Amino acid sequence: MRPEHSADSPLSIHAMTVAYHRKPVLWDVDYDAKPNRLIAIVGPNGAGKSTMIKACLGLAPRASGQVEFWGESYRRARSRIGYVPQRESVDWDFPVSALDVVCMGRYRRIGWCRPVSRSHKEAGLECLERVGMRSLAGRQISQLSGGQQQRVFLARALAQEADLYFMDEPFAGVDAATERAIVDVLRELKSQGKTVIVVHHDLQTVPEYFDEVILLNMRVVASGSVNEVFTEENLHKTYGGRLTLLSEAAEAIARAAGGA
Amino acid sequence: MIEFDIGVDLFPLLAGTLAAITCGLLGNFLVLRRLSLMGDAISHSVLPGLVIAFLIASTRNPLVMFAGAAIAGVVTVVLVELVKRLGRVEPGAAMGVVFSVLFAFGVLLIEKAAARSVDLDADCVLHGQLETLFWIGAPERWVDLFSWSTLDAAPRQVVVLAIMCFLSVVFIAALFKELRIAAFDPAMATAQGFNPTLMHYVLMIFVASATVASFEAVGSILVIAMLVCPAATARLLTDRLRSQIVFSVIIAAATGILGYFAATAIPGLFDRGSVNAAGSMAMVAGFILSVAIVLAPRHGVVVRVWRRRRLGRSVAVDDLIAALYRAEERGMSGLSRAGIRNALVGRAADNALARVRRRGLVDEREHEIVLTPDGRRAAAALVRRHRLWERYLVDQAGLPVDHVHETAEELEHVDVTPAPAQGQGLDPHGRLIPDEDADLDGASAGHR
Predict the structure, then answer these.
(1) Cβ(B190)–Cβ(A58) under 8 Å?
(2) Contacts of B32 in chain A (CB under 8 A)
């Protein structure tokens, strides 16, 4: 563990750079999450918000830098980390029910080669209950509305019983009932001492829903408590035009490497 | 006439059915991952693997053949991935390129090897040699089959297929949930520590091995058909993965048995001999799939057409009574048959009329169709919904008044009603919106 990062911190990112096909999309990210906070990642399109959480989870290739969870590697901390991917990332025609999907959150707990037992199904049903979806547990997932599908993903994350959650745009394109359900779950998770990091696109609701914010545009523009950091000046720095020099450099690196 | 001779028929039937079940089972995960073409690709590209394994080891020992096929399967997956990424083509093109080139390479290798009088034949790879599996000295009666000597007599192909089938069942049963999460959400599988890439390769090794196990007996055409058809058929019949897998196995077994007998029976109808049993099984697989496409309970063509027609009929009924209600509003007591036909342009007005009469919504008296009290209540509810929608579209959605009628005409048949606005009893065209519990006497007061 590095001296500047603490074992209390659920997430410590040190000097992380992420590149797709050698084209850097995130530069030199340094970040320490405080425990028990609701944290929003905010930034313009293409700022690398999803990439940042994917890189933390080992789902996107890190070019350099370290990521630690409570001072440990992802491999060792894996069972304490939950993940809600973007809704569009899966095939919703897949022949499974809402409950089947929620129980996927418990597969690690269940272990290799063992079937999903009754007690795990009960736990899954309870998680559906917490997002107001218990009555739809047996529905095939293609017969759910977009908001209901998002709530199934949320229930699946709850079923993981993690201490740190990453959520990729959970509020994107959902109805009012789902938005309320998500906010309730966020508050509940906070009251249980957990930390949630959410990619968020609606600037209006940031102060209402979150304690801390990471302003991101290919690098961390500012991070900290919403009161201190979520200022007009910082937002202007984040959204006011790309960092032209940095993106030009990224293009040049990509060209030199022969990629797109 | 279907005759069953144990000596001639038992082992070919067993081999065909076992191959069908094995491939049908594994095919489920190819179809779900939209990788059906991968089965096609692997079943072709194992050929060079087989030939090379044979040339190196100079034996047709099954274990050597499986090793060659497994390596060829993995090489295929890697090559497809490479061609896709470096050649920047879509996955289908990448698979097509890789398997045709590898298959051609295998054929060239066979020709080269044939010069050294090697017993490998590309033809047999395509069609199989099911008919050669007869059993000389087979017992006449079924009861005599239940003895150890039957196992000794079983040809190598049947034994290999039985083992392969057993291993596939164990593989799918043991790793059911891991295969499911890897196919549904690879990112989540990764985050949970179930490596989906590894699962993918293991599945492909199984497909390659099943292909090899089936080659000698049934050939690659049946393999490809069975990797796709049973799973695709089962997917139409259910929305649950577990039942899909069970159905696919049943369908595969039925395909094997039906196909085998059809190969003798159907040409027999035309006084011909029998046809290639593997080819006949593949035909049956395709036939069962087409039947399912037409008749499946939720996704089938017939059900979809029927559902659409039922909707059309109920819309016609709604429109008919609404037309009568509007006629009453204009001070008429009812409409003539011609008037009804005008109101339901282009639709089967007489049909709709017969239906509403059966349901007691209208009466016919002296060449005039009039609403019964029940009909009036139903019609009032409908017209109410229509006008509330018009109100909503103008007030809330900001549409111009002359544009809302058509949209409301669609929406009045949906089971959603906008809440009435306070103190607004009129629609945007100035007509009265009927009350919630349609006041019958009020609506029909002038017409009695």
Answers:
(1) yes
(2) 94-95
pLDDT over 70 at A129, yes or no = yes
Specify the CATH number of the domain B6-226.
Answer: 1.10.3470.10
Range with top average pLDDT, B7-21, B124-138, B169-183: B169-183
- Check residue A4 and give its pLDDT: 53
Record: contact A107-B185, CB cut-off 8 A: no
**Is-contact B241 A96, C-beta < 8 A?**
yes
Q: What is the pLDDT of residue B445?
A: 39
Q: How crowded is residue A241: how many other Cβ atoms within 10 Å of its Cβ?
A: 9
Q: How far is CA A234 from CA A214, A220, A229, in A?
A: 11, 11, 7
Q: How many CB pairs under 8 A join A and B?
A: 72
Full-model pTM: 0.83
Give ∠ CA B284-B286-B292 in degrees, rounded to 5: 105
- In angstroms, the separation between the Cα of residue A70 and the nearest Cα of chain B is 17
The minimum CA-CA distance between B174 and chain A, rounded to whole Å, is: 5
**What's the ipTM?**
0.88
Interface test with A, best of B86, B88, B176, B188 (most A CBs within 10 A): B188
pLDDT digits (tens, 9 = 90+) for B387-422: 988 888 888 888 888 888 888 888 888 777 787 776
Contacting residues of A for B174, CB less than 8 Å apart: 113
The fold for domain B304-447 equals Arc Repressor Mutant, subunit A (1.10.10)
Could you tell me what percent of chain B has a pLDDT over 90? Answer: 34
Domain parsing of chain B, residue ranges: 6-226, 304-447
* Contact by Cβ (8 Å): B296, B237: yes
Query: How deeply is B149 buried, as exposed, middle or buried, from its count of CB atoms within 10 A (0-12, 13-18, 19+)?
Result: exposed
Give chain B positions within 8 Å (CB) of A91.
Answer: 34, 184
Any CB–CB contact under 8 A between B180 and chain A? Answer: yes
More confident residue, B119 or A105: A105
Mean pLDDT of chain B: 85
Residues in B closer than 8 angstroms to A110, CB to CB, are: 177
Nearest by CB: A107 against B32, B194, B241: B194
- Domains of chain A in start order, with CATH, are 11-256 (3.40.50.300)
